[in-house]
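sorry to bug you again but im stuck and you know this stuff better than me. theres a chain ive been looking at and ive put its sequence and its fold in C-alpha coordinate form underneath. id like you to explain what the C-alpha coordinate line says about the fold, in plain words if possible. anything you notice is useful, everything is just below.
___
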Amino acid sequence: MKKIKFMLLAIAAGVSSLFGGVYNIDASHTNVAFSVKHMMISTVNGEFEKFDGSFELDDETNELVALNGEMDVESINTNIAKRDSHLKSDEIFNAEMYPKVTFVLDKIEGDKAYGKLTIKGTTKDVVLDYEFGGTITDPWGRQRAGLSLSGKIDRRDYNITWNQALEAGGVVVSEIVKLNIEIQGILKAEDDF
Protein backbone atom coordinates (compact mmCIF):
# COMPACT_ATOMS: atom_id res chain seq x y z
CA MET A 1 0.00 0.00 0.00
CA LYS A 2 2.84 2.39 0.86
CA LYS A 3 4.43 1.63 -2.51
CA ILE A 4 1.23 2.58 -4.33
CA LYS A 5 0.93 5.85 -2.39
CA PHE A 6 4.56 6.69 -3.13
CA MET A 7 4.06 5.93 -6.84
CA LEU A 8 0.93 8.10 -6.96
CA LEU A 9 2.78 10.97 -5.28
CA ALA A 10 5.69 10.58 -7.69
CA ILE A 11 3.34 10.58 -10.68
CA ALA A 12 1.47 13.63 -9.34
CA ALA A 13 4.77 15.47 -8.82
CA GLY A 14 5.86 14.57 -12.35
CA VAL A 15 2.54 15.62 -13.87
CA SER A 16 2.61 18.84 -11.86
CA SER A 17 5.88 19.91 -13.44
CA LEU A 18 4.45 19.16 -16.89
CA PHE A 19 2.11 22.13 -16.47
CA GLY A 20 4.88 24.73 -16.15
CA GLY A 21 5.41 27.02 -19.13
CA VAL A 22 3.79 29.90 -20.99
CA TYR A 23 0.01 29.97 -21.41
CA ASN A 24 -1.98 32.01 -23.92
CA ILE A 25 -5.15 33.48 -22.46
CA ASP A 26 -8.22 31.64 -23.73
CA ALA A 27 -10.63 34.50 -24.45
CA SER A 28 -13.67 32.22 -24.60
CA HIS A 29 -13.09 31.12 -20.99
CA THR A 30 -11.79 34.38 -19.52
CA ASN A 31 -13.74 37.33 -18.14
CA VAL A 32 -12.34 40.82 -17.49
CA ALA A 33 -15.06 42.49 -15.45
CA PHE A 34 -15.53 45.59 -13.31
CA SER A 35 -18.25 47.13 -11.20
CA VAL A 36 -18.89 50.59 -9.80
CA LYS A 37 -21.53 52.13 -7.55
CA HIS A 38 -24.10 54.27 -9.37
CA MET A 39 -25.86 57.12 -7.57
CA MET A 40 -24.60 55.56 -4.33
CA ILE A 41 -27.47 53.04 -4.24
CA SER A 42 -26.81 50.37 -6.87
CA THR A 43 -23.98 48.76 -8.81
CA VAL A 44 -23.28 48.88 -12.55
CA ASN A 45 -21.36 45.93 -13.97
CA GLY A 46 -19.30 45.89 -17.12
CA GLU A 47 -16.59 44.03 -18.94
CA PHE A 48 -14.00 44.27 -21.66
CA GLU A 49 -15.02 41.87 -24.42
CA LYS A 50 -11.73 41.97 -26.34
CA PHE A 51 -8.41 41.29 -24.62
CA ASP A 52 -5.21 39.38 -25.10
CA GLY A 53 -2.33 38.22 -22.99
CA SER A 54 -0.32 35.39 -21.55
CA PHE A 55 1.01 34.09 -18.26
CA GLU A 56 3.79 31.79 -17.16
CA LEU A 57 3.90 29.09 -14.52
CA ASP A 58 7.21 27.98 -13.02
CA ASP A 59 8.28 24.54 -14.32
CA GLU A 60 9.07 23.22 -10.85
CA THR A 61 6.46 24.80 -8.58
CA ASN A 62 3.60 25.77 -10.94
CA GLU A 63 3.67 29.19 -9.27
CA LEU A 64 2.68 32.20 -11.36
CA VAL A 65 5.87 34.04 -12.37
CA ALA A 66 4.66 36.29 -15.19
CA LEU A 67 1.40 37.72 -16.49
CA ASN A 68 0.60 40.44 -18.97
CA GLY A 69 -2.74 41.45 -20.34
CA GLU A 70 -4.12 44.05 -22.71
CA MET A 71 -7.77 45.12 -22.86
CA ASP A 72 -9.35 46.90 -25.83
CA VAL A 73 -11.22 49.98 -24.56
CA GLU A 74 -13.51 49.99 -27.61
CA SER A 75 -14.83 46.62 -26.45
CA ILE A 76 -16.18 47.93 -23.13
CA ASN A 77 -19.71 46.67 -22.51
CA THR A 78 -22.14 47.59 -19.74
CA ASN A 79 -25.21 46.49 -21.74
CA ILE A 80 -26.27 50.11 -22.33
CA ALA A 81 -24.98 51.48 -25.66
CA LYS A 82 -25.30 55.15 -24.63
CA ARG A 83 -23.35 54.55 -21.40
CA ASP A 84 -20.70 52.56 -23.29
CA SER A 85 -20.27 55.44 -25.76
CA HIS A 86 -19.80 57.83 -22.83
CA LEU A 87 -17.23 55.53 -21.25
CA LYS A 88 -15.24 55.48 -24.52
CA SER A 89 -15.44 59.27 -24.90
CA ASP A 90 -12.70 61.72 -23.96
CA GLU A 91 -14.57 62.44 -20.69
CA ILE A 92 -13.81 58.95 -19.38
CA PHE A 93 -11.39 56.48 -21.08
CA ASN A 94 -10.70 58.49 -24.26
CA ALA A 95 -10.51 55.32 -26.36
CA GLU A 96 -9.31 57.19 -29.43
CA MET A 97 -6.16 58.44 -27.72
CA TYR A 98 -5.72 55.56 -25.24
CA PRO A 99 -7.09 52.42 -26.93
CA LYS A 100 -5.64 49.91 -24.46
CA VAL A 101 -5.68 49.18 -20.74
CA THR A 102 -2.71 47.01 -19.71
CA PHE A 103 -1.58 45.02 -16.70
CA VAL A 104 1.88 43.57 -16.07
CA LEU A 105 2.61 41.36 -13.07
CA ASP A 106 5.61 42.22 -10.91
CA LYS A 107 5.37 39.40 -8.37
CA ILE A 108 3.14 37.07 -6.37
CA GLU A 109 3.41 37.01 -2.59
CA GLY A 110 1.04 34.54 -0.98
CA ASP A 111 -2.48 35.46 -2.08
CA LYS A 112 -1.50 38.91 -3.42
CA ALA A 113 -0.53 39.89 -6.96
CA TYR A 114 1.62 43.01 -7.33
CA GLY A 115 1.69 44.66 -10.71
CA LYS A 116 1.43 47.74 -12.86
CA LEU A 117 -1.92 48.84 -14.28
CA THR A 118 -1.94 51.40 -17.10
CA ILE A 119 -5.10 53.34 -17.96
CA LYS A 120 -5.21 56.52 -20.08
CA GLY A 121 -1.41 56.60 -20.29
CA THR A 122 -1.00 56.58 -16.49
CA THR A 123 0.72 53.62 -14.83
CA LYS A 124 0.21 52.86 -11.15
CA ASP A 125 1.28 50.04 -8.86
CA VAL A 126 -1.67 47.90 -7.78
CA VAL A 127 -2.13 45.03 -5.35
CA LEU A 128 -4.83 42.52 -6.22
CA ASP A 129 -6.15 39.44 -4.47
CA TYR A 130 -4.84 36.34 -6.24
CA GLU A 131 -6.14 32.80 -6.38
CA PHE A 132 -4.64 29.97 -8.42
CA GLY A 133 -7.34 27.67 -9.72
CA GLY A 134 -5.03 24.83 -10.71
CA THR A 135 -3.99 22.97 -13.84
CA ILE A 136 -5.66 20.24 -15.85
CA THR A 137 -5.47 18.33 -19.11
CA ASP A 138 -8.64 19.00 -21.10
CA PRO A 139 -10.49 16.29 -23.09
CA TRP A 140 -8.50 17.23 -26.22
CA GLY A 141 -5.13 16.76 -24.55
CA ARG A 142 -4.30 20.45 -24.05
CA GLN A 143 -2.84 21.69 -20.79
CA ARG A 144 -4.94 24.39 -19.12
CA ALA A 145 -4.50 26.58 -16.05
CA GLY A 146 -6.83 29.00 -14.30
CA LEU A 147 -6.42 31.93 -11.96
CA SER A 148 -8.39 34.83 -10.51
CA LEU A 149 -7.50 38.43 -9.72
CA SER A 150 -9.74 40.85 -7.86
CA GLY A 151 -9.46 44.13 -6.05
CA LYS A 152 -10.26 47.82 -6.07
CA ILE A 153 -8.75 50.86 -7.71
CA ASP A 154 -9.48 54.56 -7.44
CA ARG A 155 -10.28 55.75 -10.97
CA ARG A 156 -9.05 59.26 -10.14
CA ASP A 157 -5.51 57.82 -9.98
CA TYR A 158 -5.82 57.31 -13.74
CA ASN A 159 -7.22 60.76 -14.56
CA ILE A 160 -10.78 59.46 -14.86
CA THR A 161 -12.45 62.21 -12.90
CA TRP A 162 -15.79 62.85 -14.62
CA ASN A 163 -18.68 62.97 -12.18
CA GLN A 164 -21.80 64.88 -11.19
CA ALA A 165 -22.99 65.82 -7.73
CA LEU A 166 -26.40 64.57 -6.63
CA GLU A 167 -28.92 66.96 -5.16
CA ALA A 168 -29.42 64.65 -2.17
CA GLY A 169 -25.65 64.36 -1.61
CA GLY A 170 -23.06 62.04 -3.05
CA VAL A 171 -22.11 61.63 -6.69
CA VAL A 172 -23.41 59.84 -9.78
CA VAL A 173 -20.44 57.46 -10.07
CA SER A 174 -18.22 56.17 -7.26
CA GLU A 175 -14.49 56.82 -7.52
CA ILE A 176 -13.81 53.23 -6.42
CA VAL A 177 -13.96 50.57 -9.12
CA LYS A 178 -13.98 46.87 -8.29
CA LEU A 179 -12.11 44.53 -10.61
CA ASN A 180 -12.93 40.85 -11.04
CA ILE A 181 -10.80 38.94 -13.54
CA GLU A 182 -11.15 35.22 -14.21
CA ILE A 183 -8.42 33.87 -16.47
CA GLN A 184 -8.02 30.53 -18.19
CA GLY A 185 -5.00 29.79 -20.33
CA ILE A 186 -3.83 27.09 -22.72
CA LEU A 187 -0.20 25.97 -22.61
CA LYS A 188 1.67 27.11 -25.71
CA ALA A 189 2.93 24.30 -27.88
CA GLU A 190 6.61 24.38 -28.82
CA ASP A 191 5.72 25.27 -32.41
CA ASP A 192 3.74 28.33 -31.15
CA PHE A 193 6.94 30.14 -30.11
In short: Helices lie at 2-18, 81-88. Residues 119 and 127 are 15 Å apart (CA to CA). The chain has a mean pLDDT of 87.
